[in-house]
Amino acid sequence: MEQFVNRDSVEDLKKRIVNCIKILNEEGVFELTYGHISCRIPNSDKFLILGHLHESNKNLFDVTEEDIVTMDIEGETLPGEVEAPGERFIHTEVYKRRPEVEAIVHCHPILSTSFSISGVPIMPVNNLGTIFAPEVPIHDYSGQVDTAEKAAAMAETLGNRMAVVLRSHGATIVGSSVEKAALNTLALEHTAKMQLIAHQVGTPRPIPVEETDGIFSEGTKEREYYDTAWDFYSRKYQNHLLKL
Ligand SMILES: [Zn+2]
């Protein structure tokens, strides 16, 4: 984690968001061009978020620092900047309720979303999945979350968890840095994949709640995981990423 914890100027944060977008895009968790990432600007009440790309005819492959805009807690961007996405309230309402959350991903990952269609929660079926224990809540609303009221309801379903799946729509995942939010997004899809495979060969047996704490808790194991995972993905896509 040392490679990015101290790089939190606005310009560096914009590059970090772009790099996370590129990794998630290459890993296939974005549906077509839909999805956005935001993070808090330290020591302020503002946020950085991917602007509404469709206004500039760009897609996620084209994203640069210039596409990252500054948003306030009401979802308004600075004069002259493109608007934040229509579902910007997902971000504002979670930030209002979760002071420890530094970054948020909203996307439409195919496996995680599929579980919500069947009403089956994603469970901690593997060690990494224990970050979602005891389960990933399903928000029973499949429309666009394009008002503060709708987003507040989703944030209530999220509660203090790491992720929430929106029925037949997508997922919202949080983290204590933009890289962790991105890695948690990949972990969610990975866990869903493993649960799906386990279901094909038998009845999945999630890791019991009393065993989840010691497997992947705050401390060395968590730090090692995020460091290793970030190193893996940033090497895998090194030719796509902006230099920090
Ligand atoms: Zn969406």
Task: Give a description of the structure.
The structure is a single chain. This protein is 39% helix and 12% strand. It has 244 residues and is of the alpha+beta class. The chain has one domain: L-fuculose-1-phosphate Aldolase, CATH 3.40.225. A 7-stranded mixed sheet has the order 3-2-1-4-7-6-5. Helix 2 packs across helix 4 and helix 3 packs across helix 5. The longest helix is centred in the C-terminal third of the chain and has 24 residues. The two termini are 14 Å apart. The site of zinc ion has 5 residues, from loops.
> How would you state the average pLDDT, rounded?
91
Overall morphology? globular
**CATH class call:** Alpha Beta
CATH architecture label? 3-Layer(aba) Sandwich
Largest sheet properties: 7 strands, mixed
Q: List unreliable stretches of 5+ residues.
A: none
Radius of gyration: 17 Å
Contiguous helical run count: 7
Q: CATH fold name, please?
A: L-fuculose-1-phosphate Aldolase
What do we call the CATH homologous superfamily?
Class II aldolase/adducin N-terminal domain
**N-end to C-end Cα span:** 14 Å
User: How many β-strand stretches?
Assistant: 7
